């Protein structure tokens, strides 16, 4: 600091000068700021003493800027604009961190969306930007920060950890459930089976009953699991409930459980990230996903 430099007047005094210039009088400035007329006068006088010149001509109807005042006010207002611009830039750089999350549409509709606000909330708030797509987003290439993939795990060139396991049991519309009451697994297979692009779940359930499963022409395949559930609700065949993923949806539907036997699905939802992911906001979202999954498993 240059010791010969005169101490600058407080910013509040400079702001008061600008307010008086806009208001046209000390009285109007006092009313606008909540200060007394005397406080306004003292602040303006302090700046004038610091400058060594008058900024305002005082008259009965108020005040008007002197020539020096006009030049000084222009410089001060420009300086305040610079300060405001710097503050805006700083606020932008400190806005809530964002994490891009890729999920299949069925998982978004059945589980994620109703938990999204609570996943974002907390300290810090994190903006979770959800992309729904059936393809596997390339996290290693930076397309997204986190992908939720359904499978056995072990994918190459990424880090993956299990998020949610599933239990499987057959469900159908009330009409089909009534017809199949007390039926064996083999009897159930006489009905069309509804499934998405993967038969792993149906194979696991049938194997547990000692029944082999072969694809049949009458079975119906839908790309999205929520469409599988809707087809079962419409009476088009038998679907597998995937608990706890579909618990809320099934509770709101007409679907009935056909068997007390349920099996663990060989496939699980996994949290997938690029290798050695270290960004705090990404790790925090992963931790929140795990907590939400644990809470769902406890209910």
UniProtKB/TrEMBL annotation:
HTH lysR-type domain location is 9-66
Keywords for this protein: DNA-binding, Transcription, Transcription regulation
Q: Does the keyword Transcription apply?
A: yes
Coiled-coil features, chain-numbered ranges: none
Q: What family does the Swiss-Prot or TrEMBL record give for this protein? A: Belongs to the LysR transcriptional regulatory family.
Name of the molecule in the record? LysR family transcriptional regulator
This protein's species is Pandoraea fibrosis
Task: Identify the taxonomic lineage of the organism of origin.
Answer: Bacteria, Pseudomonadati, Pseudomonadota, Betaproteobacteria, Burkholderiales
């Amino acid at each position: 600091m240059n010791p010969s430099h005169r101490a600058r007047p407080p910013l509040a005094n400079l702001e008061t000068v600008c307010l008086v210039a806009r208001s046209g009088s000390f009285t109007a400035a006092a009313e606008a700021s909540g200060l007394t007329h005397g406080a306004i006068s003292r602040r303006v006088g302090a700046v004038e003493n610091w400058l060594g010149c008058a900024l305002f001509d005082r008259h009965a109807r108020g005040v008007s800027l002197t020539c020096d005042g006009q030049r000084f006010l222009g410089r001060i207002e420009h300086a305040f604009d610079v300060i405001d611009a710097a503050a805006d830039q700083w606020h932008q750089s400190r806005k809530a961190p964002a994490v891009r999350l890729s999920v299949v549409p069925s998982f978004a509709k059945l589980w994620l969306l109703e938990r999204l606000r609570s996943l974002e909330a907390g300290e810090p708030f994190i903006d979770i930007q959800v992309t729904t797509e059936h393809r596997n987003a390339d996290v290693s290439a930076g397309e997204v920060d986190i992908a939720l993939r359904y499978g056995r795990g072990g994918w190459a060139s990424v880090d993956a950890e299990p998020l949610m396991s599933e239990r499987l049991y057959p469900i159908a519309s009330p009409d089909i459930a009534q017809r199949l009451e007390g039926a064996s697994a083999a009897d159930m297979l006489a009905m069309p089976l509804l499934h998405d692009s993967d038969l792993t779940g149906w194979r696991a359930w049938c194997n547990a009953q000692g029944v082999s499963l072969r694809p049949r022409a009458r079975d119906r395949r839908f790309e999205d699991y929520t469409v599988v559930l809707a087809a079962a609700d419409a009476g088009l065949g038998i679907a597998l409930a995937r608990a706890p993923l579909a618990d809320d949806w099934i509770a709101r539907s007409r679907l009935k459980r056909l068997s007390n036997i349920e099996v663990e699905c060989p496939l699980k939802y996994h949290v997938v990230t690029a290798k050695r992911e270290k960004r705090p906001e990404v790790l925090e979202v992963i931790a929140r996903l795990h907590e939400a999954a644990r809470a769902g498993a406890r209910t």
